[in-house]
Design a protein that fits this description.
2 domains; alpha/beta; Rossmann fold; single chain
Length: about 400
């Protein structure tokens, strides 16, 4: 028995403000990788079940994600906030009672702490991917609940280095894990893909963006660039959230194609000449570390971005990236990157070297190592119990 490692596969219980089937990003990348070694429960924000209807849970497997279970509470929204929290707590307790075992708590939002703070966990992780308090319509209670979550967490991960700098003095174990990439997925764009039907008829050059179009997006900059270069086609892929669609600039060379599945992105990218990140510079973008930076580069597309701090300091010196602080400079930078794209792919070697360890497999493995350390320290504080031989499992990952 001495040469065998006793391993308990704790359930990872992830509380997220982002719905699994909304936009494929950090939570999905990480949870799918953690699910290779343990069951993952992805607990989403509640939806309204209507007055007079009992609260329930919508539980189903995550599409295309083995070992990930999606849980969406359905509760009556007409109840008071206290009553809603009590209902969520009851649903969570009933759910966990049917799944006994040890739990790793993982939070993307402090707003889910009120109904889950009582859950006993081997390790609690706060993966702070954004400064949510700076976003439009942020709940008033968010900052106080974040302070409580920071006290409860064993580990704090941040979605970028700017966030790390903002949080590192507030917790003894804060670790930066900036946005990563799945290289195999985005390299498909370099090999050429069939042009999607809603993009195929657009002339070249094409300058594209994908992601959520919200208060972080500089609509005036897009309008300026489209007006300044009417022969360029601006392809906007993604949902419009928290802003009125009437605010979107409308020109013949701006094309809003709506939400697309993650699997479709390489095909759209393949048909672009330059990839854009026209973010507004405001409080909501102060700490962001856009996932699309490494994804665009991995797809083989030169990038033009406004001066987002984490983009500028980690990618700004690459030949395939230009940072532009104003509208005129942004258009000029696009001109430069269009010329670079026409000149061949020599610039890609530098980008690929820069991205060598910026992938989700490495990021998840480093997170897993930190969690393993916490689990080992927790186990060291408890009496050691040897499991029966038939129940002993060996494992090298959490």
């Amino acid at each position: 028995m001495a040469d065998q490692e006793v391993c308990v596969r704790d359930m990872l219980l992830c509380f997220s403000h982002l719905r699994w089937e909304f936009v494929f990003q950090r939570p999905q990348h990480l949870m799918m990788r953690f699910a290779k070694d343990r069951p993952v429960i992805y607990w989403e924000e509640p939806i309204d079940c209507g007055e007079g209807v009992p609260a329930t849970l919508h539980v189903r497997p995550a599409p295309g994600a083995a070992n990930v279970t999606l849980v969406t509470p359905k509760i009556p929204f007409h109840l008071t906030e206290t009553a809603q929290e009590a209902s969520l707590k009851n649903l969570l307790d009933l759910f966990l009672a049917a799944r006994p075992g040890k739990v790793i708590r993982w939070y993307y939002t402090p707003m889910m702490l009120p109904f889950s703070r009582h859950v006993e966990a081997e390790v609690t992780v706060y993966d702070c991917m954004d400064e949510l308090s700076a976003f439009r319509f942020a709940p008033p209670a968010l900052l106080a609940l974040e302070e409580e979550l920071l006290r409860a967490a064993d580990l704090v991960f941040t979605g970028g280095f700017s966030l790390f700098e903002a949080k590192r003095d507030r917790h003894p174990s804060v670790h930066p894990f900036p946005s990563s990439v799945d290289p195999a997925h985005f390299h498909k764009a370099r090999r050429g893909q069939a042009d999607p039907a809603d993009q195929a008829a657009l002339p070249r050059p094409r300058l594209g963006f994908y992601g959520v179009i919200d208060e972080r997006f500089d609509l005036e900059l897009l309008d300026f660039a489209a007006k300044a270069r009417p022969d360029w086609q601006f392809v906007m892929v993604g949902p419009v959230v928290k802003i009125d669609e009437a605010e979107l600039p409308r020109r013949a060379n701006i094309h809003y194609l709506g939400s697309k599945h993650y699997d479709e992105l390489p095909a759209y990218l393949s048909g672009w000449d330059v990839a854009l990140m026209p973010f507004a510079i405001n409080e909501s973008t102060r700490f962001i570390s856009p996932t699309k930076t490494p994804e665009y580069l991995s797809a083989g597309k030169p990038v033009v971005s406004t001066p987002i701090r984490d983009v500028e300091r980690h990618y700004g010196r690459l030949q395939g990236v230009r940072i532009a602080a104003d509208a005129d400079s942004f258009v000029a930078a696009c001109e430069e990157m269009l010329a670079l794209a026409k000149g061949g792919e020599d610039w890609l070697a530098e980008a690929d070297l820069h991205l060598a360890e910026t992938n989700w497999d490495v990021t998840q493995a480093r997170m897993a190592a930190l969690i393993r350390r916490e689990l080992a320290e927790t186990a060291a504080d408890r009496p050691f119990v040897i499991a029966p031989r038939e129940e002993v499992a060996t494992c090298t990952t959490i």
